[in-house]
Predict the structure.
Amino acid sequence: MKIAGIAVFVCAALAQTAQTPSEPKPAVVEGKVVNSVTGESIRKADLTLTTSLMPEGFDAMVKQFGLDADVMDDMPAAKGPKKTFTATTDAAGKFQFEKVDPGDYYLTAKHAGFMDETYKPTGKDSVQGRLHLSPGRELSEVEFRLIPQGAVSGKVVDEDGDPVASAMVTASTYSFAEGHRKLQLTDNGTTNDRGEFRLGKLPAGRYYLNAEIINIDAMGSVPPPPKDDAPETGYVATYFPATTDVQQAEAVEVKPAGDVPGFVIHLQKSRVVRVKGALAGADGKPLRSAQIILMSAAHPGSMRMTMVNNPEGKFEMANVPPGAYMAITMQMNGASPSMTMQPLIVPNENLTDIKLGMAPEGKLQGRVVVAGDGKVALKGLRVMLTGDEDAPVMPSTAAVDESGAFALAKVAPVPYDLRLPRVPDGAYLKSVLWNGREILGQPLDLSAGAGGDLQVILGTDGAKLDAAVSRDDKPVADATVVLLPEDAGRRYPETTSSEETDDTGHAAFQDVPPGNYLLFAWEKVEQGAWFDAAFVKAIASQAAKVTIGPKESQRVQIKVIPASK
């Protein structure tokens, strides 16, 4: 009886084990990291495999500002708990990840003195720009070619040639953002007690150096105004060598691994003004104790900060250069500080009696409408408003309900850019109507208030286009293919598409609005350069003209434009 009982127990245990699904076999990723200029192996490079590029604490931050993590469409959030694996290259520049859980990952490499790089998978290994690792996948021969950073150095002096300590120095370069060519900050630092600076995190390119004096008044003291009420002057943002106008500045050329010394920036003086007013909370009562910060997107060194300790909430700030600012009011309420942000335009004259501290209360309502007979699930879509450097405000986002309705809260009376972070499959952004007027590709101007009729219309008759890119009758991988409206007046981010070719030289465009287009393929091109009308006009003869109808499918062959052109 005992033997029989044991046999029954063993059989039951074996049956239970057989029914338990086995753990998926882990994946393995290995490769090497080399210097893109010299080809030498890079040791002690840090490699990271992660399911999300969102920084730690990001979820808490977006909730604080009323945003949503999924608006960051260039960094899709992980499905489920975030997973991260790390590795370091050995003396031969080789790395290996063992026992990696199957899933979709970003693979990044970084090393001091080099630009960070994210691996770009292709074909079956790619899912939304991430590396797809199936159970048991063994991926070898992954190569990172890290680009060495360049550096510039020099000093900042005043009108007498004396060194200026603690000045912020920035290096910026022109690039395209939201369809417009703008000066974008690349690296920054501060001068030492000798007025010396060194910026050492610059990729190859042309840069404009700028120096500014940050004005932080921790005690809330303000210098008295001139007795004769004469206009005040002070040191303002100055471009190398000695100009306040970037159009007259000299560009600095930086090559990979280049270290260019000897730049002297002569700070210039110009008109500065005073900003006076009072702080009030949402209830209208004075904020007796708070901190005010004026931040400039165009000139980060022009930051102004002061403490307010006044029963009526009154404040005064001096030496403020005219321009567009984000006015940040912070209150320390124990363990939970509160913060409000408001746009503030400072003119070329003193400001008096302004009110700060009250969060914008505007509310904008609208609806998403589906045109045509296509079926689109609207629930879960998001609508987003963002300001530009001339209207430095916090973004506002809203979820769309199943009927297409949405409501954007805390909207300021400024111009915004309206975005749909993710347009659903089977649809495209066809039109944006504000009070019946078409504003697709144009700012949504709420200066007169948020009351009005806003409609976001999705088209469902989009077409499909397959572009086959070649050189000498051979397919070209990793080429940039751009579908640009033939009408120059309709070329903006919402109507333009770009894709990278896969290993077979193909780029697929889905949900293409019907119309006439120019199709370009570049071996190498600056991101967004196709929004420059002069650039496009010079090479228009190398484009393929495409006319595509509703729900049509086309396949177009096009020759790549070499990197030298």
Notes: Confidence is low (pLDDT under 50) at residues 1-15, 69-74.
